[in-house]
Amino acid sequence: MSEVIHADHHDDHAHGPAKGLKRWLFTTNHKDIGTLYLWFSFAMFLVGGVLALVIRAELFQPGLQFVQPEFFNQMTTNHGLIMVFGAIMPAFVGLANWLIPMQVGAPDMALPRMNNLSFWILPFAFGMMISTLFMEGGGPNFGWTFYAPLSTTYAPPSVTYFIFAVHLMGASSIMGSINIIATILNMRAPGMTLMKMPMFVWTWLITAYLLIAVMPVLAGAVTMMLFDIHFGTSFFNAAGGGDPVMFQHIFWFFGHPEVYIMILPAFGIVSHIIPAFARKRLFGYTSMVYAVASIAFLSFIVWAHHMFTVGMPLAGQLFFMYSTMLIAVPTGVKVFNWISTMWRGSMTFETPMLFAIAFVVLFTMGGFSGLMLAITPVDYQYHDTYFVVAHFHYVLVPGALFSIIAAVYFWFPKWTGKMYDETLGKIHFWLSFVGVNVTFFPQHFSGLAGMPRRIPDYPLQFADFNMISSVGAFIFGLSQVFFLYVIIKSIRSGQPAADRSWEGAKGLEWTLPSPAPYHSFTHPPVVKDEEVLG
Amino acid sequence: MTEQTQQAEIKRTVKKLSLIVLGMCGFAFALVPLYDLFCEVTGLNGKTGGPYVFDEASAEPDRSRLVKVNFLTNTNEGMPWEFWSGQGAVRVHPGQAKTVRFYVKNTTNKPMVAQAIPSLVPVSATEFFHKTECFCFEQQLLQPGEEVEMPMRFIVGRELPKNVGSINLSYALFDITDRVDISAVQGSGLQDQLPAAGG
């Protein structure tokens, strides 16, 4: 007991945030760092979005109108890299920073100083990467998958900046993940057993393990590139005994778990929002946990389904085909659980719920096109076409991104103490929903008809689908600028929010005042089953 | 849990996780030899093996079938040499040794070093395709305008799967002048310069 009193005494001296820029530079507060991550990821999201609009503007009509192929390649590459490593991943880390300590009843993250470092590395990493676009020879132009030898023998001179930027992003992610795992494993409030943890915490725990397992592999891959380029090694150079196909194996050994890194926290978010607005407990909590764990495990043994056309024996193709299809089972469990949660619930459709339901529907569509791609013989037709583009944008945009937006609307009152404007939120949702489908749905068709990805020009028969797609992209892009307006307006002049901002919201974070105080849960809260289990 | 014990627990977790990170870094680089080993065992990437020791006197060719072996020659992008094979294809009995000839010519006016890299399809034939002698085990140093004949002696193993009727063997010739010390290639055993690139 004396320790508690001691801690209490200590906290009486703790005060609010420092003033000015220093608050943000030196902060070790999980809420401040979460905010930094979220704003940074939003900035990167807009940058990546501008690149996407350059792509879509060029593809509006066949022929070359705005940019040259060399620049177009830089746009596709950097759009992918910025959205994956700069927008989606940091946004989830930002949400983790804000939510995990509050949801497990901890005062802060386990390693607050490292937390500061893992954020502040990122602006430098992306500064370095984006600066290459203005260098002689241009920036990365080899696709976000940076296959050797495109990224080694034939790379622009700026590739070294790219390599170090990836090293920095990797270091940031690894530190962030260690921090998250250390927090979850050691700092839960008494009584919160592992199987009482909120789903967002569970999904992030597993995601963090995936990150520390595969980010070093990515770092290894770019290090080998660095050696091949500058030190005369031949990891990926056939002339010296290396093998460019090995690059693809190493990359996708990282890359496939990476795509689950970008979706598992989304599963967690949706598992909070749907029960809250269906006013029911999450259906099948235990099966949800096991489903996430199985998806994480399977993600390590399916990587070569990205490489069916590279050349593989029949046994390998069959193995990777069946193991990939197996992922549909735990994913299906999750989708059915969300639907069962809504079944006979007293549902209301506030903005976060709309985004969450759109997530379930559209993510499932992305999952189905993924199943189609998993079928080896037809993958020969779909490989590297717009069908693949449609597939992964369906799981990443209305999948990962919608879940992030849903989370922002859902926890916004807790973060700011203000309620967003429901009408504006709904307008944002419908614009996004229409925009995303108009953009990506036609790409299924152009892809099935054989339009290759990563090309600045295309045959005439794809003109209509591309025009529709480009119109949708501009609707979607502008609706995200509108999102920025909604957020800023709500921060400035939103109505005050209640502590439990949503009638059906459950979890320790809703027991705190709104806005959440700068230091929360300095005494561990009492964990009541009806609160944490919904 | 007191604050001290919590800090100690966090430290322990961080140590364990850092070990995982280090282990995975090591694993990334271990993938390189593992990949080579995997390919060597399975023959998946079409790389044929190194020099094969074979007693021709005791060999008993399988006269019941003939296998067609097609030869393809390519020069890698930016490699100006000419590279061709004496025969486009030969028919051999499994178990019967055969010598074929390849030719290279240095069309430039400077000495250059080249390395040929084989690739074989179907991959199910890779492990049964043996070479007792091959220019691809060595590097070729050619003076300006020099042309040489390069023999390659091979045996298709008798265990070759029955459904394989023809084998395509492709050689890609790479310019490795910048990667080796020319005087050293001339002086010593050629293959000591670089690890034989998969034979």
Task: Kindly describe this structure.
The complex is a heterodimer of chains A (534) and B (199). Helix content of chain A is 68%, strand content 1%. Chain A has 18 helices and two strands. Chain A has helices at 2-13, 21-26, 30-59, 69-104, 112-131, 159-186, 199-230, 244-261, 264-278, 285-298, 314-326, 328-342, 351-374, 376-382, 386-416, 422-448, 463-493, 529-532; strands spanning 418-419, 495-496. Chain B contains two helices and nine strands; from the N terminus they run αβββββββββα. Chain B has helices at 3-42, 182-187, and strands at residues 67-75, 82-85, 89-92, 97-105, 112-121, 129-133, 139-142, 147-156, 166-175. In chain B, strands 3-1-9-5-7 form a five-stranded mixed sheet. The longest helix of chain B has 40 residues, at 3-42. Classes of the chains: A mainly alpha (534), B alpha+beta (199). The A-B interface holds A 3, 6-7, 110-111, 174, 177-178, 181-182, 185-187, 190, 212-217, 219-221, 224, 232, 234-235, 238-241, 243, 245-246, 249-250, 253, 311-313, 316 and B 1-3, 6, 9-10, 13-14, 17-18, 20-22, 24-25, 27-29, 31-32, 35-36, 39, 42, 44-46, 76, 115, 117, 123-124, 172, 174-176, 179, 194-198.
What is the number of strand segments of chain B?
9
The termini of chain B sit apart by 62 Å
User: What is the gyration radius of chain A calculated from CA atoms?
Assistant: 23 Å
Structural class of chain B: alpha+beta
Oligomer state equals heterodimer
Beta-strand residue fraction of chain A: under 5%
Q: What value does the average pLDDT of chain A take?
A: 94
Give the N-terminus to C-terminus distance of chain A in angstroms: 30 Å
Which band does the percent of strand residues of chain B land in?
A: 25-35%
- Spatial order of the strands in the main sheet of chain A? 1-2
Structural class of chain A: mainly alpha
Element string of chain B (H = helix, E = strand): HEEEEEEEEEH
Which regions of chain B are unreliable across 5 or more consecutive residues at pLDDT < 50? 187-199
* Count of discrete alpha- or pi-helical segments spanning 4 or more residues of chain A: 18
Low-confidence stretches of chain A: 1-13
Strand order of the largest sheet of chain B: 3-1-9-5-7
Rounded to the nearest angstrom, the radius of gyration of chain B is 24 Å
Number of helices of chain B: 2
Q: Largest interface, with Cβ-Cβ < 8 Å?
A: A-B, 41 and 42 residues
The residue fraction in helices of chain A comes out at 55-70%
